[in-house]
C-alpha cells in the first residue's frame, strides 16, 4: 500500500547504523534538501547539530520553530557569517611549523585546515554520545572559506583536499555527518561518503513534483530507489509505492479522525470541501488518466457510497468487465448488516460472482441470449425510484462496463447525445451519477464540461495520484491512513 | 577561523556532558588561533581568549575553566606574574605554559608561581595531549578522565 512516511525505510535503516557515518544530500535549490535533513535530525537517536552555512539561526528558527525547542537535543550553529578563511588558516599553520614538531605529518595539525566552526563542534562530541552533524549547505560554507585563488600562489588546499580532511576527521568520532550540497556531482565526495541521496523536481504536465532518489546507501538494500515527497504541513513526507490492489477497508463515518492539515481522509468533510460536495441530483466524473487500479478508485468512492446508505439512500453500481461483484459488496458488508445491504445496493454486471454469495444483489447484464438491455436498466431505475423518502440515490457507472454491454448488444452510445441522455435521467429520477471513465474515452470527454465534480486519477511510478479538475485542487497522492480511515490523501507541495 | 582581537566565546546552548574547558592566552593572534585549534583537536571547549594577563585574569574569574593554556609572551609582560593569581581565583585549574625558551619552566621561584606543565617549542602533539591529560590525573579520578584522554590520543592514531 502506498504509505506516507516521514523518511523512506531504507534511509531510516541507514541512520540506525552506528557512527561514524557519512551521507551526502544533493539537489538543486528549492527541492526540499533542508526539510529532508531536518527530518533526519529528528529521527536520529542521539544528539544533533545543525550547522547553517546560508541562513542565520533566528531566520531558521522562524521557519522551523521546533528547532528552538529546548527539549530537543538539537543545537543550531550559525556559520553563515563566520569570519576568517583559508588564508588566515595558512598564517596560523606557518606558526605551527615553529611550535609543533613534525607539524607537517601531524593529523591533528592537518585537521586545522577545516573551517573553524566545524572543528569547534567536532571538539565537543565525546565518546559514547553519537551525534548527527548536518552542514547545510556544505557548498556555501566551503566556498566562502576557500574564497578566490591566492594571487601570490600560496600552496593552499583546494576544496577536494578540505573534503578529504573533513571526512577523515569526522570518522574519528561518533559522528553521523550529513553534507548538503547544491553543486553537481563530485566524483570524489560521492566516493568518500557512505550514502548519497538526491532531490529533484520532476515535471508532470504543467506541474512539478518533488522526488528523492536513493543513489547509494552502503550496507542497506534499496528496495525502492525513488520516492515522491511533499513538504505540506512543514514536514518532509515521502510516499512508498502502492500495492497491486488496495484492500477494501471499512469506513466508519461516525468516527472520522481529527483533521490534519494537508491530509484528507476520503469521505470526511474535508474531502467534500476540497473536491466538492455530492449534490443530488447531479453528475460527478472520475477520470482515469492511464491504468489506475480499480481498487484505488473504490477507495475514493467507497466512503461516498457508504455515506449514501448511512443516510438511508440506495446505490446502483455498473461495474467494468473483470471487476468481481464481491469486491464491491465486501465493502458494504464490513459496515452494514446483510438486510441493509440487500435493501440498498444493486450491482449491474456481466461478470457473475464466483460463489453464490451475492446473487440477490446482482442485475445480470448482458444476457448472452440476446435479451434486450432495456428491461434490466428499467429494473435498476425502478429500484432506485423506490428509495425511501429523502434518501439519496447514487449510480456509480463505469463507462467501460456500460460500453461493453452496449457492444455486446450490437450498438454504441453516441458521445454527442450521451450528456443529454444522462441529464434527462438525472432530472427524472433525482439520482446522482458518478461516472468513471478513461481520459481517452469520447464519452468521458463529453461528460467533463457538464460534471459538477470532476476528479482526475493517474497512476505514476506505482503510486496513485489524484487532483480536482472541477473544483480545481492541488495534487494529492493516495496513501495508507490509520485504523479509523485506512486511506488518506496527502497534498503534494 | 576565530577573530583577531581577544574575545570570550558564547557557551554552548545544549549541555553535552563533561567536556574540559580552556582559556587561551597569548599576545600573538596566530599563536592564539593555533593553540585554540590544537585544543579543539583534543576535544577541549574554548571558553575565552586573552591577549594580556589582565584580560586573562578577568576571563578566568568569570569562566572558571578547567585549563589555562598560556603563552609566555603576553601583551603586558610575561605569564609568570599572573599564575599565582589565577590559582588563587580558580583553585585546581590546570595551567600549561607554552614557551619558546627551553628552560622557562624553572623560572618560577615559588610553587604557586609554577605552571602544572610546560611545553617548550617545538613540542609534539603527544606532549601536548599529555600536558592536558596527565595519566596520573585519570587514574586518580577513577579512570574516567584517563579513558577520555586515551580516546583522544587514539583518535589520531592511524
Largest β sheet strand count, sense and barrel closure of chain A? 11 strands, mixed
Pair of chains with the largest interface and how many residues each contributes: A-B, 42 and 38 residues
Give the helix tally of chain B.
6
* Cα Rg of chain A: 30 Å
Count up the domains of chain A: 2
* Relative helix content of chain B: 25-40%
> Globular, elongated, flat, extended or rod-shaped: what is the shape of chain A?
elongated
Residue share in helix of chain A: 25-40%
Could you name the ranges of chain A where pLDDT drops below 50 across 5 or more consecutive residues? none
- Give the integer mean of the pLDDT values of chain B: 76
Instruction: Provide the β-strand percentage band of chain A.
Output: 25-35%
- Sheet with most strands: strand arrangement of chain B: 2-1-3-6-7
In CATH, the homologous superfamily of chain B goes by the name Response regulator
What gap, in angstroms, lies between the N and C termini of chain A? 21 Å
Please state how the strands of the largest beta sheet of chain A are arranged side by side. Answer: 11-21-20-19-18-12-17-16-13-14-15
Distance between the termini of chain B: 26 Å
CATH architecture of chain B: 3-Layer(aba) Sandwich
| CATH topology label of the largest domain in chain A | Rossmann fold
Task: Please provide a written account of the structure.
The complex is a heterodimer of chains A (493) and B (158). Chain A is an alpha/beta fold and 493 residues long. Chain A folds into 2 domains: 4-239, P-loop containing nucleotide triphosphate hydrolases (Rossmann fold), CATH 3.40.50.300; 253-491, Rossmann fold (3-Layer(aba) Sandwich). Helices cover 32% and strands 26% of the residues of chain A. Chain A has helices at residues 9-14, 33-43, 57-63, 86-99, 107-111, 116-123, 138-146, 159-170, 187-192, 269-275, 294-310, 325-335, 338-344, 374-385, 399-408, 418-429, 442-447, and strands at 4-5, 21-26, 47-52, 74-78, 131-136, 175-181, 195-204, 207-217, 226-230, 237-239, 263-264, 282-289, 314-318, 345-349, 362-364, 393-398, 432-438, 453-460, 463-470, 472-480, 487-491. In chain A, strands 11-21-20-19-18-12-17-16-13-14-15 form an 11-stranded mixed β-sheet, with helices on both faces. A 10-stranded mixed β-sheet of chain A has the order 1-10-9-8-7-2-6-5-3-4, sandwiched between helices. Helices cover 38% and strands 19% of the residues of chain B.
Amino acid at each position: 500500500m502506498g504509505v506516507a512516511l516521514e523518511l523512506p525505510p531504507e534511509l531510516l535503516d541507514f541512520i540506525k547504523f552506528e557512527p561514524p557515518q557519512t551521507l551526502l544530500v544533493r539537489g538543486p535549490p528549492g527541492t526540499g534538501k533542508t526539510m529532508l535533513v531536518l527530518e533526519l535530525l529528528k529521527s536520529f537517536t542521539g544528539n544533533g547539530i545543525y550547522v547553517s552555512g546560508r541562513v542565520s539561526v533566528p531566520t531558521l528558527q522562524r521557519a522551523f520553530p521546533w528547532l528552538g525547542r529546548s527539549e530537543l537535543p538539537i543545537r543550531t550553529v550559525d556559520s553563515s557569517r563566520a569570519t576568517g578563511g583559508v588564508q588566515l588558516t595558512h598564517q596560523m599553520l606557518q606558526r605551527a611549523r615553529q611550535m609543533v614538531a613534525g607539524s607537517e605529518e601531524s593529523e591533528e595539525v592537518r585537521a586545522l585546515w577545516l573551517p573553524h566552526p566545524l572543528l569547534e563542534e567536532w571538539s565537543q562530541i565525546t565518546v559514547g554520545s553519537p551525534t548527527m552533524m548536518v552542514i547545510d549547505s556544505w557548498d556555501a560554507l566551503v566556498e566562502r572559506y576557500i574564497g578566490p585563488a591566492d594571487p601570490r600562489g600560496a600552496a593552499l588546499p583546494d576544496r577536494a583536499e578540505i573534503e578529504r580532511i573533513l571526512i577523515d576527521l569526522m570518522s574519528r568520532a561518533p559522528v553521523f555527518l550529513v553534507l548538503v550540497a547544491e553543486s553537481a556531482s563530485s566524483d570524489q565526495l560521492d566516493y568518500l561518503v557512505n550514502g548519497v541521496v538526491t532531490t529533484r523536481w520532476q515535471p508532470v504536465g504543467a506541474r512539478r513534483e518533488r522526488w528523492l532518489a536513493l543513489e547509494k546507501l552502503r550496507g542497506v538494500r534499496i528496495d525502492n530507489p525513488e520516492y515522491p515527497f511533499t513538504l505540506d504541513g512543514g514536514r518532509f513526507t515521502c510516499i512508498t509505492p502502492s500495492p497491486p490492489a488496495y484492500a477494501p477497508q471499512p469506513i466508519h463515518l461516525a468516527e472520522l479522525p481529527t483533521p490534519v492539515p494537508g491530509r484528507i481522509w476520503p469521505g470526511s468533510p474535508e474531502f467534500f470541501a476540497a473536491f466538492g460536495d455530492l449534490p443530488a441530483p447531479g453528475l460527478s466524473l472520475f477520470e482515469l488518466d492511464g491504468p489506475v487500479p480499480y481498487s484505488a478508485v473504490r477507495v475514493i468512492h467507497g466512503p461516498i457510497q457508504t455515506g449514501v446508505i448511512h443516510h438511508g439512500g440506495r446505490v446502483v453500481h455498473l461495474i467494468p468487465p473483470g471487476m468481481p461483484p464481491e469486491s464491491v459488496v465486501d465493502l458494504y458488508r464490513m459496515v452494514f448488516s446483510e438486510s441493509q445491504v440487500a435493501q440498498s445496493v444493486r450491482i449491474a454486471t456481466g461478470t457473475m460472482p464466483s460463489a453464490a454469495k451475492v446473487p440477490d444483489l446482482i442485475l445480470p447484464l448482458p444476457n448472452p441470449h440476446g435479451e434486450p438491455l432495456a428491461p434490466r436498466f428499467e429494473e435498476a431505475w425502478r429500484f432506485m425510484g423506490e428509495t425511501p423518502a429523502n434518501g439519496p440515490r447514487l449510480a456509480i457507472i463505469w463507462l467501460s462496463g456500460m460500453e461493453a454491454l452496449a457492444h455486446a448488444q450490437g450498438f454504441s452510445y453516441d458521445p454527442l447525445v450521451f450528456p443529454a441522455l444522462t441529464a434527462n435521467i438525472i432530472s427524472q429520477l433525482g439520482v446522482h451519477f458518478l461516472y468513471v471513465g478513461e481520459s481517452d474515452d469520447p464519452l468521458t470527454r463529453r461528460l467533463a464540461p457538464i460534471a459538477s465534480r470532476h476528479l482526475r486519477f493517474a497512476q505514476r511510478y506505482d503510486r496513485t495520484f489524484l487532483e480536482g479538475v472541477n473544483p480545481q485542487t492541488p495534487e494529492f497522492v493516495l496513501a495508507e491512513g490509520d485504523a479509523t480511515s485506512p486511506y488518506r490523501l496527502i497534498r503534494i507541495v | 577561523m576565530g577573530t583577531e582581537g581577544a574575545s570570550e566565546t558564547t557557551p554552548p546552548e545544549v549541555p553535552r556532558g563533561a567536556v574540559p574547558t580552556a582559556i587561551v592566552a597569548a599576545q600573538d593572534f596566530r599563536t592564539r588561533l593555533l593553540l585554540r585549534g590544537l585544543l579543539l583537536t583534543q576535544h577541549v571547549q574554548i571558553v575565552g581568549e586573552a591577549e594580556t594577563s589582565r584580560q586573562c585574569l578577568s576571563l578566568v574569574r568569570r569562566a572558571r575553566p578547567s585549563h589555562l593554556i598560556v603563552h609566555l609572551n603576553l601583551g603586558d609582560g610575561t605569564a609568570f606574574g599572573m599564575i599565582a593569581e589565577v590559582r588563587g581565583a580558580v583553585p585546581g585549574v590546570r595551567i600549561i605554559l607554552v614557551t619558546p625558551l627551553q628552560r622557562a619552566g624553572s623560572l618560577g621561584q615559588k610553587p604557586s608561581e609554577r605552571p602544572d606543565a610546560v611545553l617548550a617549542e617545538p613540542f609534539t602533539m603527544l606532549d601536548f595531549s599529555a600536558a592536558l591529560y596527565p595519566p596520573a590525573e585519570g587514574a586518580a579520578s577513577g579512570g574516567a578522565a584517563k579513558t577520555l584522554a586515551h580516546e583522544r590520543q587514539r583518535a589520531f592514531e592511524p
